[in-house]
Amino acid sequence: MLSITMQKTHRHILALFSAALISLLLIWGNPLGLEANANKVCAIGCFMIICWVTEAMPMPVVALFPLILFPILGIGKMDDVAASYANPVIFLFLGGFMIGLAIEKWNLHKRIALNIVRLTGTAGNRIVLGFIMATGFLSMWLSNTATTMMMYPIALSVIQVLEKNGREKETRNLSICLLLSIAYASNFGGIATIIGTPPNVAYVSFLEKNNGYVFSFADWMKLCLPISLLLLVTLYFVMTKILIPVKSTADTLVKEVIAAEIKEIGKLTKAEKRVLFVFVLTAALWITRDIINGLQQAIKLDDTMIAVFGGILLFIIPSGEKESTPLLVWTDTKRMAWGILLLFGGGIALADQLGKAGLIQALGEGMAGFVTPGFFLVLTVALVSIFVSEVMSNVAQVIVFAPVVAGMAAALNIDPLQIGMAMTLGASCAGMLPMGTPPNAIVFASGRLKLKHMVVTGFVMNLVSALLISLFCWYLLPVLVRAIG
After folding, report:
1. What is the distance between the alpha carbons of residues 461 and 239, in angstroms, rounded to a whole number?
2. Max alpha carbon distance in the chain (Å)?
3. How far apart are CA 134 and CA 226, in angstroms?
4. How confident is the model at residue 447 (pLDDT cuts 50, 70, 90)?
């Protein structure tokens, strides 16, 4: 164990040393012949990207380097750099995190999931359908990691009941199909909302800052809910009908397990009802924001205000339980992914300076010289994005590549959304490797999956996802964008 730890430490030190050395060589040698300021930004960008890809340091820590290096090297003033870490989109995600924490704290997510599974039925393929529906819906509002962590033990309890009753062979395919479906549905469901997955937040922030596109929560849902649902439906048919066929006979044992779980959690508690109220209120305000703003002039709502308002309400409204505490107390936020917020800030700061230095435009124009606009360009971007995200953090990936594809779109004179959305949505669809996304790692850790199961099914789902996303972005997205005005 000590030997493994030492090896990891040496690998991290080597990666950090390599990143620093490459960056220093870029600064001193300027092999690209850039202007002094642009050369410094390029070197820092290379340093951060290498550290992100190699995991030389925790990703949020790497995201803090602009606060040190940009002012020291005279690239930007501290006030300007620090402003990136207070971008409104970061607070949108903060509010979403708080609502997700409250849903988890009071077990509302488990109730929703169990009831969806109960409604879909207990036949083998219907069990998978129920879990896909429940996982996909929850992932629209919670992180894909939290969603998978919640659905995973419920799925295991269903599998174990079937195995204990002498049906181990019959449930082998169901076990593989169910666990993989949960992981993939967690990824696909998050595509539907801005707060569903970090890459969405990162891309929306980039678009607002650089391309003039302003997406409300409702706008994003109108655009991406269709492709999210299409991916979830396709997942069900590809997994249960083609890749891993499952027994379709109804099973009373599974029905009893689900019923027992629902009975155990009992009736809706006061706390659950109040969390549900805040959740529904926040979602309703997001969806009807433009209508409310159009009906009056006194208050102008935006999605960030609504998200923070929903989060604050949770610290005000009493839970109604014996402790007489609010629905959320500050100690609950220890479980919140603060590092993601720092990562966004660092990514925004880096992208801002890359843009000011003209590096993004130059890179986009250079890449545009090797491609031609059209459907196959979108398909190529989607494929590259999906397979790159198997080995690279999807948030860092979007932060790094969003400016590049925007520059490419400008050089080719095409809508940046068509290839930008293909890149962003593709970043959430990695399915081949355990390290591709946290949901993949969680279900693989069950010990019920062999690597070949995930590689084969993930490879097929990667190709299917890339094709569906490309068709959506090239043919349907422009129509939807015009429709929402």
Report:
1. 9
2. 71
3. 17
4. confident
- The tokens describing 436, both together, are 């591709």
- On whether the CB atoms of residues 239 and 180 are closer than 8 A, the answer is yes
Residue 139: per-residue pLDDT: 86
Does residue 235 have a pLDDT over 90? yes
- What is the average pLDDT across 451-477? 91
The answer for residues whose C-beta is within 8 angstroms of residue 277's C-beta and 6 or more apart is none
Whole-model pTM: value is 0.71
The predicted-structure confidence for 166-200, as pLDDT tens digits, reads as follows 555 567 788 888 899 999 999 999 899 888 888 88
The full 3-state SS of the chain, as one line of letters, equals: CHHHHHHHHHHHHHHHHHHHHHHHHHHHHCCCCCCHHHHHHHHHHHHHHHHHHHCCCCHHHHCCHHHHHHHHCCCCCHHHHHHHHHCHHHHHHHHHHHHHHHHHHCCHHHHHHHHHHHHHCCCHHHHHHHHHHHHHHHHCCCCHHHHHHHHHHHHHHHHHHHHHCCCHHHHHHHHHHHHHHHHHHHHHHHCCCHHHCHHHHHHHHHHHHHCCCCCCHHHHHHHHHHHHHHHHHHHHHHHHHHHCCCCCCCCHHHHHHHHHHHHHHCCCCHHHHHHHHHHHHHHHHHHHHHHHHHHCCCCCCCHHHHHHHHHHHHHHCECCCCCCCECCCHHHHHHCCHHHHHHHHHHHHHHHHHHHCCHHHHHHHHHHCCCCCCHHHHHHHHHHHHHHCCCCCHHHHHHHHHHHHHHHHHHHCCCHHHHHHHHHHHCCCCCCCCCCCHHHHHHHCCCCCCHHHHHHHHHHHHHHHHHHHHHHHHHHHHHHHHHHC
In the predicted model, is pLDDT for residue 165 greater than 60?
Answer: no
Give the residue carrying structure tokens 């395919």. Answer: 173
Q: For 12-44, what is each residue's pLDDT tens digit?
A: 788 888 888 988 988 888 887 788 888 898 899
| Amino acid letter, 103 | I
Please name the residue that has the structure tokens 């433009």: 290
Distance, in Å, from the CA atom of 438 to the CA atom of 431, rounded to the nearest integer, reads 10
CB atoms within 10 A of CB 60: 17
Query: Tokens in use for 387?
Result: 């397979």
Q: How far apart are CA 63 and CA 339, in angstroms?
A: 9
pLDDT value at residue 471: 95
Q: For residue 188, give the nearest of 344, 386, 380, 383 by alpha carbon.
A: 386
**pLDDT of 161:** 64
